[in-house]
Predict the structure.
Amino acid sequence: MDVLEISKKIMHEGPICDHCLGRQFAKLSTGLSNRERGQALKLALVLEGDRIYKSENNDSLLKELALCSAFARKTLGTGGEDEQCLVCQDQFKKLDRWADEAAKALEGLEYSTFLVGTKVSGLLSENEEILWAEAGTAYAEQLKSELNREVGKRIAEKVQKEVDFENPDITITLDLAKSKLELQIRSVYIIGRYRKMVRGIPQTRWPCRKCKGKGCESCNFTGKQYQESVDELIKGPVVEAFQAVDTAFHGSGREDIDALMLGSGRPFVVEAKSPKKRSADLEELMRSINEKAAGKIEVREFSFIGKGMIETLKSAKADKTYKLKVTFKEPVSEEKLKSCLGSLSGTEISQQTPRRVVHRRADLVRKRHVHSIRLDELTGEGYVYITVNCEGGLYVKELISGDEGRTNPSLSGLLGVTALVEDLDVVNVDI
């Protein structure tokens, strides 16, 4: 079936605007807009109708073209001022209105690129599917694709920003059913390292165990199990700097609440959500965080990154170095202690998920390596200091205690004496 025959079938369905008629042939003839295609097809139908009327004595053919020609003549170049388009219900008369609303919504936001998307109502989708059933889809383009493009061109002209199909700063969604638009602002991501100089602070926000964050007497109606976290100490200055709605914290592993994070610090990414600003002085931001959290945490080495770095950070297998304060239930000689530590150094450790975390993690047996372990200080006061360098994911407290045989080998098992970690400091995260 040729183009005019398909066009005649479409026009028999009822009034159709230039955009919707031309869109059925969007894959034909580059360099034309769908509106121009539609106008050209309507003009061709008008001319063909007049030719048959004047030169051919063919009543059946004349009747066939009469309705098409009448609709085409009436709507040619106007989109049909008096007749609502049976497909889009005159959505293409609203292009400038959408662009004006978007430009107003974008005022006050810092961005370089944007993209337009469209939520098409069920009725409009059905209209288009009915038309495709009659005319076919071999050359057609979807309604939302043309709306995205046409509104996008008008917005770009108004705001003087570029469209980015891969990673836009802002996505503008046109909700046709609700006749309103929504903005989705891409987060800003910053990578850095943090040091934690006090014990008793978790890495991330921790809702109250009893009320699940709703607020109760147990948590003094704060909804928090712990009133501060590394996450929240960083959050305030980041929200202020980027005028963000909130932040999300993504760490490369985590240390226990009662552990310090020393040395060069633990890598992390802070995500500023729905930011009105996308640029900031990162040196000033670090100073602000360190001043407000003085004595608790310290951040360093800030730089901007893309979202993909989060997965890289979380999946990276980082070696860790710990400094442990270890106590013994019975006296242990220095010679025996050094001998047992030597046995652990360079050894593969088999660990069943520790009892203290098995309620929230899969009960599995994991294999991890101890690269080195050494005695730093024998105090003579019932405790010693030990440094452990090991593969990420090793439960170091259980390496010492044995966790009632769930970790093997362990220092307690080799000594034959119960050993426990009293304090744990993370000295380095090698990533």
